[in-house]
Structure formats: structure tokens, C-alpha cells
Design goal:
The structure is a homodimer. Chain A has ten helices and eight strands. Chain A has an eight-stranded parallel β-barrel, surrounded by six helices. In chain A, helix 1 runs parallel beside helix 3, helix 4 packs parallel to helix 5 and helix 8 packs parallel to helix 9. The radius of gyration of chain A is 18 Å and the shape is globular. At the A-B interface, helix 5 and helix 6 of A face helix 5 and helix 6 of B.
Chain lengths: ~280, ~280
């Protein structure tokens, strides 16, 4: 049984009903020790005020979510995208988040080359890494599900995240985020988690619904789907990972519509039973 | 430029408007040399009548689509599923199809183990292989996109198809179908196509739309999406593959709603330009 002291809830899970102050106060009220902060809410609330609230509620911030989308072949667009990632690193440092979740970006419709998009991303990560080192924030490379390869992330497998870490050659700055939703189907999962080893700096949990209706916003609550989450947790922990287990659920049809206090109570129950 | 003598159209692409006889006559009328037959239409039309029409129109049948769905942990359900695959092999032989497209099946909701589903599938393929040898039909292992892993196929990558071929150890009976839609995102694509080599016995083409809305029935016409189809074709042909290039488009929102003659004309145009 998983100890609740390892529970982290991503702000996105409760995004539709709560602003920043309600979210942070709610986490404290329910005894959730750690959170991941989402940038759109951070922008609304302001970095300095958010930091004050986080400290007042005595919460740990695992990460800031998310920045990236740097795959474009257009130089001007790429410069703007890189600026935004640099800003996100500064924001992460300012709110005391150890990691910035990095989402690569998709395939350019004019270029139609997932290969070119991947090579450019790797080049740009080298630039991002320089600033990350300066501000003391780690960049968490997060593979996303192949079904969002075209639009959200050309980083589609753990194998590729490991390859990129090999090539970037800076294990202090770059790590990997394992998200059950993104990787559960992968035949190479056990091998690539073992290969990642100490690179794993974040572990996200959620479930895959049998009747999934949307490519992005239809994730399931822990235990409601087809993923053997405990098996993946054991693989991740076998690498030595003992950090937070982060609940991150995008759910247009269900969880975003519910009362956040109810959602948190259910997460806590499922966290003990299904993770 | 791809020679039209290598064009094959899957019946499913024109499924909504045409029955078997209209489909086969339409292919002949448009000078399409090869087809893949779909089982539901075959069941309606009958095997003997279909064979007569295929011969009368002088068409090549690359494959019968599809059979499988053998992942269940339930013994009775598994026996029924195996019977159905055996029947499909007989049907394929009867209509002169060289290959049967094999779709593994999904994850059992009670069991929640993609690993167990994969192991059972491999065991059952050994049984299927015995009958395939008898009737002279090859079993084409077709990896499907990871987004249908839960519901349609736990065979999610070319790497796993290659692993299964290694373990089955019968290259005459088992081959691999490469479908651009299923594999384009895979960072290991080039390596696993090269590894597959002569195992590749079918090559399916279609495109991934940037605004994909459905996990199964929203495939795009050649050239309308983000896949570099010519690049994948070159990888496949570098293995020595010189067979048909098969157009297979499931499209609830668009192509299934159009006049089949119009769809075929557009396919022929795009086949020259975008494949």
C-alpha cells in the first residue's frame, strides 16, 4: 500500500473549478503534501503571490507544467518558443519547483517530418539546458502518447527519451518523467525504465479508459481503466525512485465537472487501492 | 513516381456505399489491379459467389481483412475466437487471398494486463500457424497504433512483431504488415523495418490528420496529413519489398460519405503524387 506522504496532485486535475489560492488551500486542507503547478493558473495568480501562498500552506512543488513546443522549422517562431521555455525555467525557480516538465511539440504540417522535428528539438534542448543549469531547475523530458505525436510531442517513447539523455550528456540537468498513460502500452517499457534508472525524476499516474473518446482530454481515474499501475510503479521504484507519485488527470467528460473536494477524496482512496 | 500497377484498394475504404459486386466491378472499371477483401462484405456476398466475381473481373486479392481478437483469458471465448480465425483462413484460401490480416485483440478489463494478453496471443498464433500452413495462407501480423492497444491490438510496435516472428520461427507462415498510420510516429521505425526485411508481406498507406477526432475511424487521405509516406515507402522497398501498395482508409467524417467513384479517382491521383 502506497503511503499518502508520497501523494502529489497536479493542478490540472482540478483546473476547471479552482483558481490558485483555492487549489493550494484545498491541498493543505486535505493533507496532500505536494503539488504540480500549471502555468496558466500561475500566470493568473502571479509568481510572487503564488510563492507566498505555497510557503504559507507549507506545500512541496514537484514541478511546473509545462513548457516546450519547440519543434517548429520557422526561426522566428522557434526563438519565441525558446524564450518561453527560458521564462518557464525562471518561473519554476521562483516558485521552488525542482523540475520543469518539457513537452517537445508536434510535426510541422508543411514539413511533414517527424525526424526533422526530433533533431531540432534535441538542438534546442542543449540551449535550454544552459539556462536550466544557471537557475538550478531540472528539465524533465516527458514522453507523451504516440497519438499526440503530430500535435503535442514528437518524443513518443521512453527509448527516445533515454537516447536524448545519452546525447545531451548532462544527467544533472536532464531527467525523464514517466507517465503511465503515455507509456503503458510500450512493449519495451520494463527495459527502458530500467535503462532510465536514476534519470527518472517524476512519476505521473492516471488510467486508460476502455472507451476513450478523445485523444487528449479523456484520461481516467486510477483504477477505472486498463493500466496495471502497480506493475509500472514497481518497475519505477526498482530503479531507486522514491519520490512523489503524481496524479494528473485531464477529463473533459467527468472529473473536471465534479466538485474538487469530492475528486480529492476519491483520489486519496484510489491512491491507496489502485497505485 | 509510383506505378499504378502496384495499387491495391481495401474494400473498407469504400465500405459504406458499395456491396461486394459493386466494389469488384468498380475496381475493374477504374483499372485498379488488386483488392483486399473485408470479411463482413464477404459474409454478405458468400465465399463462392465472391470468388466467381473476383475471377470474372480478373482481380488480384492481396489479403482478407481481418481476423484475430484472441487475447481473452476466458477459455470458452478463446476457443470461439480461435475457431473464427481458422474459418477466416479457410475463407482466405477459398477466395485466393495470399494473406490473412491478423489483429491481436485488446486488454481484458478484469485482468488489466497487457503482458498476459501478449503472451496468450503468441501461444494462440502457434495454433493458428498450423492451420495456415495446411491451407497455404500466410498470417500477416499487423501492429496497430498504440492508441488502440486497449481495445483492438496489444501488438503495438514493429519491434514486437519482429520479436514474435523470432519466437514463432516460421518465416514461411508468419509475415508482417506495415501500415503507415500505425507506425509513422515510431522512433525505431527505420531500424525495425530493416530488421523485418523479407518478413514484410503487406504495406498499407493512409495519412494522419492533424485534427484527428476519433481513435479508429478518422484516417486521412494520402497527402492530407502529417506522415512522410514516401520516406516510409523507401524504407519498406529497401528490404526488397516490391508488392502492392494498399490504400486503407477508415473515415467516418469524410471519405465514407463520398461517392466511391470520386474517392477512387482521388486515390489514383494521390497515389502518384503523395506515395
Amino acid at each position: 500500500m502506497l503511503d499518502e506522504s508520497r501523494l502529489c496532485i497536479h493542478q490540472v486535475t482540478l483546473l476547471r473549478r479552482w483558481g490558485m489560492s483555492e487549489f493550494l488551500a484545498g491541498m493543505r486542507r486535505h493533507g496532500v503534501p505536494a503539488v504540480a503547478i500549471w502555468r496558466d493558473r500561475l500566470r493568473e495568480a502571479g509568481v510572487a503571490d503564488t510563492r507566498r501562498m505555497i510557503d504559507a500552506e507549507d506545500l512541496v512543488v514537484t514541478s511546473l507544467c509545462a513548457a516546450g513546443l519547440v519543434t517548429t522549422p520557422d526561426r522566428v517562431a522557434a526563438a519565441l518558443a525558446l524564450d518561453d521555455v527560458i521564462r518557464a525555467l525562471d518561473e519554476a525557480a521562483a516558485i521552488g519547483a525542482g523540475n520543469l516538465m518539457f513537452v517537445a511539440g508536434g510535426v510541422d504540417p508543411g514539413e511533414r517530418s517527424v525526424y526533422a522535428a526530433r533533431e531540432r528539438t534535441l538542438d534546442r534542448l542543449a540551449v535550454i539546458g544552459e539556462h536550466a543549469r544557471k537557475v538550478g531547475v531540472r528539465v524533465a523530458l516527458e514522453p507523451l502518447h504516440p497519438m499526440v505525436c503530430a500535435t503535442r510531442s514528437v518524443l513518443s517513447t521512453l527509448a527516445l527519451a533515454n537516447d536524448w539523455c545519452d546525447r545531451l550528456g548532462d544527467e544533472e540537468t536532464f531527467g525523464i518523467a514517466v507517465d503511465t498513460y503515455a507509456v503503458w502500452w510500450d512493449p519495451a517499457l520494463a527495459a527502458e525504465i530500467a535503462r532510465a534508472g536514476r534519470r527518472i525524476i517524476a512519476f505521473h499516474v492516471n488510467d486508460w479508459l476502455a472507451d476513450t473518446r478523445d485523444l487528449r482530454l479523456d484520461r481516467g481515474m486510477l483504477g477505472d481503466g486498463l493500466i496495471d499501475i502497480p506493475a509500472i510503479r514497481r518497475m519505477v521504484e526498482a530503479t531507486g525512485y522514491a519520490g512523489y507519485v503524481e496524479v494528473e488527470i485531464f477529463s473533459e467528460r467527468d472529473w473536471w465537472r465534479r466538485d474538487p473536494d469530492e475528486v480529492i477524496a476519491i483520489i486519496k482512496d484510489r491512491f491507496r487501492r489502485d497505485v
